[in-house]
Design a protein that fits this description.
Distance between the termini: 25 Å
Number of helices: 18
Strand content: 15-25%
Number of strands: 33
Helix content: 25-40%
Strand order of the largest sheet: 2-3-4-7-10-11-12-13
Shape: globular
Structural class: alpha/beta
Largest sheet: 8 strands, parallel, barrel
Radius of gyration: 27 Å
């Protein structure tokens, strides 16, 4: 069907102003920000050298908007340095910070090693007077300190006081404040700290004798793991309370920031830690830097995986945290290892998942001129207007869409299906993802999540929409566990280990693709197919199974059901989380998610494109913003987005920041159909819509 591009430019906007307000004013929503918060993190080999430091400032002056802030690392190596050396560096940093402020930049300090990341440059690291962390099997982490002993806490008082006295605009605590570390030069990983002192604290806290031998024997028991997580969380919270006290005694109102990744072993207690850093009266500003691993672009699809990690982290932050700068890191900082535009794209995508800015850690760590880094700074300057536009319209509004059921304990035993695994296939089918449960009515349900909940807690989700697999189904129906057969409508059937092919049946959720097939080649990607038995009337088959002679081997491997609570259920027994990249499967998955939501899915991609979509909750006036990422090396031509809205117009922007208005070409129930002419490979666009009805 024909679509309509209304036009660009101020003249056209004026003509349409009676029916569509293009740009939201700053007053129209409490959630709208003014600009993105951008910083560059600078290594000591740059800032300690007079010529390099001057060249850095000249480059930032040459490319306005590339950054607002300059954040100085205290060191390059990843083991704690002696206190005297750190204090000495703070003296020079005070001079550098003053110069930055005179040049119009905010400036702060990033303490790279509070505990220490791993064993590196040990001869020049802090002496043995400060106790090291110990693993559960008694190994010593030579480059990492125990955070609970009083000697360490005395050190924290000294070094954070020195940081505050350098007169920074903010202080960042790096992500070495965690319990999983690389222990030695071979990269061996381990979890700390299980030293005798920490074990004593643990025993007192839980009123039972706890030893390393005891923990090694019982480590896979959920109750024991929960206690360890609680102890780890308490240890970090106590450390942050001390840092907050020391810093704000010297400098009341000085913002404290913390960098995170996915922190399951530490209890993922971001809300609690943020409130502790905000002080007893919750009146001290707190910054956050969510991150994850994506250091070079050969595996570019990891960019989207990191986006989901960041989205999960941001979803746990309290509203008091407004400055959220995503970690953008190109370690070990070789300019051709990650393309400049890939680096710049990261910041935009992470803003889509909840951040309000970005922290670029991309410049050289060597003692060399910055000539090869100038193109990256120039690129950041070119992208800056787009970052500002994104933050202006996205703000801190929550994401809405389907929810991959996960919690802070999602990585616990006994069985683990990572949230990212649940998220990626559905997201790349153009279904919006919400990382917080409160903004969803469709839930992606794994066995790992089910195993940690009571029957009553799980039942709640079956009043809404549930998409799940045979692994979870077996536990849900288990009479010794949940006995929810009447709500699932299906049960685990036979196992088909080889030669299984999915065949789409004639059903409205399959559209025009009845009779088509999907072969995931079990002989290569060994995952069993599970047939499903219908246990309740009303279960409908979407897919059956055939073998290579076209003989039917299972009547149902993918079924849907509406239960007695009014909830809708889909159980998929054949590669339920992956390989959604054919047209029939994409169409089926999208139709399923819309059906499960009872037409309450906020938006989705309808065309055959590999596009990720992040949708924000509308503000009080019904205005909403969303970001679409074309996650392929092909252009997305005439991408169709379906949006729940009563407006006939949307406006979209690419990174040129030129507005293009598109008129809906048809209506499908509560959805209007909009056709975006083109999104370039690995580019994202901002879509603005009024009168959202979800």
């Amino acid at each position: 069907m024909k679509h309509f591009i209304i036009g660009t430019g101020l003249f056209v906007l004026f003509l349409l102003s009676s029916t569509y307000s293009l740009l939201y004013s700053d007053e129209s929503s409490k959630t709208i920000g003014k600009k993105a918060a951008i910083t560059f993190r600078i290594g000591i080999n740059i800032w300690s050298n007079d010529a390099r430091f001057e060249q850095l400032l000249d480059l930032f002056d040459k490319y306005p908007g590339a950054t607002d802030e300059i954040t100085f690392f205290t060191q390059t190596t990843h083991s704690p340095i002696p206190d005297d050396e750190l204090v000495k560096r703070c003296v020079l940093l005070k001079e550098r910070i003053a110069v930055c402020k005179k040049r119009g930049y905010r400036a702060g300090i990033n303490l790279l090693c509070t505990l220490g990341h791993h064993s590196e440059d040990l001869p020049n690291s802090i002496g043995q007077e400060c106790p090291r962390g110990i693993t559960i099997d008694g190994k010593t982490a030579e480059g990492t300190l125990c955070m609970n002993q009083e000697i360490f806490r005395e050190r924290i008082r000294r070094i954070y006081a020195a940081l505050a006295e350098a007169d920074p605009d903010y202080i960042w605590i790096d992500d070495d404040v965690r319990v999983g570390h690389m222990l030695n030069s071979t990269g061996e990983a381990g979890s700390i700290c299980f030293c005798d002192y920490c074990l004593q604290l643990m025993s007192e806290k839980f009123d039972q004798e706890i030893s390393r031998d005891y923990l090694l024997t019982h480590i896979n028991e959920q109750e024991i793991r929960a206690k360890i997580h609680q102890f780890n969380s308490d240890s970090i919270d106590n450390l942050f309370a001390l840092i907050e006290e020391v810093v704000h005694e010297k400098r009341p109102g000085l913002p404290l920031g913390f960098m995170t990744g996915e922190r399951y072993e530490e209890g993922y207690d971001f809300e609690r830690w943020a409130k502790t850093l905000a002080g007893p009266n919750q009146d001290q500003p707190v910054y956050w830097r969510p991150g994850g691993g994506f250091y070079e672009h050969s595996g570019i699809y990891s960019l989207v995986g990191k986006a989901h990690e960041i989205g999960r982290q941001v979803s746990l932050l309290p509203n008091l945290v407004e400055m959220i700068q995503s970690e953008i890191e190109n370690f070990p900082y070789q300019p051709l290892e990650k393309a400049k535009n890939v680096t710049a794209l990261e910041a935009a995508v992470y803003i889509a998942t909840g951040c309000t800015g970005a922290a670029f850690n991309v410049l050289t760590m060597n003692e060399e001129p910055l000539d090869d880094n100038e193109p990256m700074i120039r690129t950041a300057s070119q992208w800056r207007p787009f970052y500002d536009l994104l933050v202006q319209h996205l703000g801190r509004q929550p994401l809405v869409g389907v929810h991959p059921l996960w919690e802070r304990t999602d990585a616990d035993f006994p069985l683990r299906v990572p949230s990212q695994y649940l998220t990626s296939g559905v997201s790349e089918a153009g279904i919006p993802v919400a990382y917080a449960k409160g903004n969803s009515n469709v839930f992606l349900l794994s066995r790992a999540f089910v195993s940690q909940k009571s029957r009553e807690e799980i039942q709640i989700y079956f009043k809404e929409g549930v998409y799940t697999d045979n692994d979870a189904l077996g536990l849900l129906n288990d009479p010794q566990s949940y006995a929810l057969n009447d709500l699932t409508g299906m049960e685990y059937g036979d196992i088909i280990s080889v030669d299984g092919i999915e065949k789409y049946q004639d059903h409205f959720l399959n559209g025009t693709f009845g009779g088509r097939t999907r072969d995931k080649r079990q002989s290569f990607w060994r995952e069993p197919m599970i047939s499903l038995k219908k246990t309740q009337p009303g279960v409908e088959t979407l897919s059956s199974a055939i073998d290579y002679s076209s003989k039917e081997t299972a009547e149902t491997i993918l079924g849907v059901f509406e239960n007695r609570l009014g909830g809708r259920v889909c159980v998929n027994g054949y590669y339920p989380w992956s390989y959604f990249y054919s047209r029939p499967k994409q169409s089926q998955i999208r139709n399923i998610m819309r059906w499960l939501s009872k037409d309450r899915l906020p938006a989705y991609i309808e065309s055959f494109d590999r596009v990720n979509l992040w949708v924000r909750q509308p503000d009080e006036s019904g205005k909403t913003a969303m970001v679409a990422l074309n996650a392929t090396f092909d252009s997305a031509e005439n991408m169709v987005v379906m949006i729940q809205t009563t407006s006939d117009f949307i406006t979209f922007y690419d990174r040129s920041c030129e507005p293009v208005i598109v008129q809906a070409d048809s209506v499908d129930g509560p959805y209007r159909r909009f056709v975006v002419p083109k999104i370039n490979p690995w580019e994202c666009i901002l879509i603005l819509c009024e009168n959202a009805s979800f």
